[in-house]
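As described in the Methods, two query proteins were run sequentially through the folding procedure within a single session, without resetting any intermediate state between them. The first query and its resulting structure tokens are shown here.
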Amino acid sequence: MHVRHLTVLLAALALASGFGAAAAVAAPARTAVASADTCRAAITSQNWRAVFSHETSLIRARAAVKKLVALGFKTAKAENRGCNDFAIVLESPEFSKFTVRTSFALQAARARLVVTYAPSGNAKAKSGDVNVYFGHASTLVAADELRRRVGARGWRETDVHYLSPGDWTVIWRNVPGTAAEGTVGAAMAAGFTPELELIG
């Protein structure tokens, strides 16, 4: 299945997904290349994960986990995503609840950590859902910094996503179209360059 990425000006979602709003201007659509993720490892977790950071090597990942354990996050672990991306996560079925995610993020903030969340591996899009991208980065390190900036602005259900060599992004998956419409303007006002991926 091919999907389209549209760089969004303020009301582009209304134009692209038929919400019937006023005219808007969007950059030409570009087709996502399905084979770009060949180095990625499949996500098999059935639970949501709190994401603390992304590290570029197993050595760095182990050091990051050790620091988190010392701070009291005893079940933190490294999740090998492939493409030299080791996500430092804490997994719990309770993170499926918005109130729990919010409370845990505030707990992490007291330790000066920005936590975002990755959904379970079996999460499925609903009719009308879109993926929201918050910009691009050429390295994993830069993409993780972008993730922190996005999370600090309140978009916590976001994580680093690999597109192709030298092209990383931060993604919010399976967003209802009505919610994405408001996100576009807010993200642009915050200095991000949002894109939409129309699912289906």
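Immediately afterward, the second query was submitted; its sequence and tokens are:
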Amino acid sequence: MRFSIIIIITVLLALVIWSCNGSQKTTKETTGSNSGNSDSGCVMLERLDMDKFNELSSDNYSLESVKQKDGKLIAEVTTNADILDYRLCWNGMVMESYPPKTNVKIVVRTKNDQGSNSQTRNLCFDLETMKKGNGDKMNLYFLDDELNLLFFFGAVD
């Protein structure tokens, strides 16, 4: 009887560990840049207080997919206007879990004149400032877009 319980617990533990690997959607190669760039040419993560974070709007683009590439976050967005600049924001709050979880928002500033043709572009973000004190991986939830990504800090894919 004890042997059966040990086997059942072992199998359940293996299933839980295996299911925590996360899923990632694929996108095209990265092409974006911005004024708040890191050494890699990607935009640095911006930390905001809770009120400013909650006021952010993400209604002028559609987030198609997110993935990790060469230790950076790549987000594929579609918009009907030319992108002037963009940033990735978070409020510094991390949910206690393994891996830790946090909410992020992508903010895209576009030209006022909306075109009739939609364009898709890949945006690159550097998340090194998020790593401090949060371990080697984090589950990122993209608010307003219902996407998530298990991000491994410093990983080269």
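The beta strands are 43-44, 46-47, 62-69, 72-79, 83-90, 101-110, 119-126, 137-142, 147-152. We note this only descriptively and draw no conclusion about the first query from it.
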